[in-house]
Amino acid sequence: MLLIPSHLLFFSTLTFGMMMAISSSSWFTVWMGLELNLLSFIPLISSETNQFSSEASLKYFLTQALASAMILLASSTMTTGVMFSQYLLSTALLIKMGAAPFHMWFPMVAEGLGWLQFIILSTIQKIAPMTLLSYTMEEAHWLILMTAATSAMVGALGGINQLMLRKLMAYSSIGHTAWMLATLLISESLWFIYFIIYCIVSATIAMFFYYKQAYHMTHLISNSSQNTQQNVIMFMSLLSLGGLPPFTGFIPKWITLQELMSSSYIFLTFFLILGTLINLYYYLRLTLAAFMMNSPMLKWQFLQTNETSKMNMMMMTLNILGLLMSPVIFLIN
């Protein structure tokens, strides 16, 4: 969908607004960059073939406009020495990234998006708020700590009874936001490592659902008899997203847990581990449904179409890339 010229233009301005926000020297230009990013993402959401896109873009605009107004208010009160301005600014950034307890808009907006737009919402749109949040880390330390613990539990419990795949991935993104906030408490380099691996694995799963045109768990069950190789790739990607060894997603979580324990964040570590175990439950529920509820015929020798084979190659390449990056990242750290 991003191959349309207008979408390429809006994606370019979206990226420019994000870069403008994270590289600005004043909070007013930060606000301008975030507004440019917001106004560029709304046309990408809108689609004539999606009847829920208008509702999703309206919800997204109202929420982000509220957060932008809070940033503008906080930046104007910083010069007067008001103490709550740092907390107001941090709260606005947490709203923009969809962290709990300011998360209610995130699953509702994700439900009305296509998978390609969801990839942008859960990856690129988190870069600017998280980078800016690192600037207020010292003043709003306890707010970020409590938000990370809350996001871990909300992301875990919110996805248990979900049958809609986009909402399930949205709650998964909230759970991973908790881990990214925890890495920000330690170091920005660790956050960058975790974020890159999360983007690769999450985009792999979203692209799988996009090519399958799967939006409900029953879509995976009905398509499960077509290609077992794709189910194996999805199984590997979901376990990697859950952080189960020896898959890619385990490495940054392992490093994060070690650093949290050495920094005496016992309380936060407990909630992160508990949330990850619950996340693994509904990841396994997706894959087991696709494996078990299918026909008993062997499907490994079925002929594949050209498009399906290209998709399998791309998905396997992303998984192998992550596995190759894991020991390098561990040695660098």
Automatic annotation (TrEMBL):
Compartments, as annotated in UniProt: Mitochondrion inner membrane
The organism's place on the tree of life at top rank: Eukaryota
Keyword RNA-binding carried by entry: no
Q: What is its main location?
A: mitochondrion
GO biological process assignments: mitochondrial electron transport, NADH to ubiquinone
- Tell me where the transmembrane regions lie: 7-34, 61-84, 105-128, 140-161, 168-186, 192-211, 232-252, 264-284, 313-332
Among the entry's GO cellular component annotations, what is one? mitochondrial inner membrane
Cross-referenced Pfam families, in alphabetical order?
Proton_antipo_M
Q: Which UniProt keywords apply?
A: Electron transport, Membrane, Mitochondrion, Mitochondrion inner membrane, NAD, Respiratory chain, Translocase, Transmembrane, Transmembrane helix, Transport, Ubiquinone
Task: Supply one GO molecular-function term.
Answer: NADH dehydrogenase (ubiquinone) activity
Is the Mitochondrion keyword given for this protein?
A: yes
> What EC designation does it have?
7.1.1.2
* Purpose of the protein: Core subunit of the mitochondrial membrane respiratory chain NADH dehydrogenase (Complex I) which catalyzes electron transfer from NADH through the respiratory chain, using ubiquinone as an electron acceptor. Essential for the catalytic activity and assembly of complex I. Core subunit of the mitochondrial membrane respiratory chain NADH dehydrogenase (Complex I) that is believed to belong to the minimal assembly required for catalysis. Complex I functions in the transfer of electrons from NADH to the respiratory chain. The immediate electron acceptor for the enzyme is believed to be ubiquinone.
Q: Which family does it belong to?
A: Belongs to the complex I subunit 2 family.
The identity of this protein, by name, is NADH-ubiquinone oxidoreductase chain 2
From what organism does this protein derive?
Oratosquilla oratoria
Its lineage opens with: Eukaryota, Metazoa, Ecdysozoa, Arthropoda, Crustacea
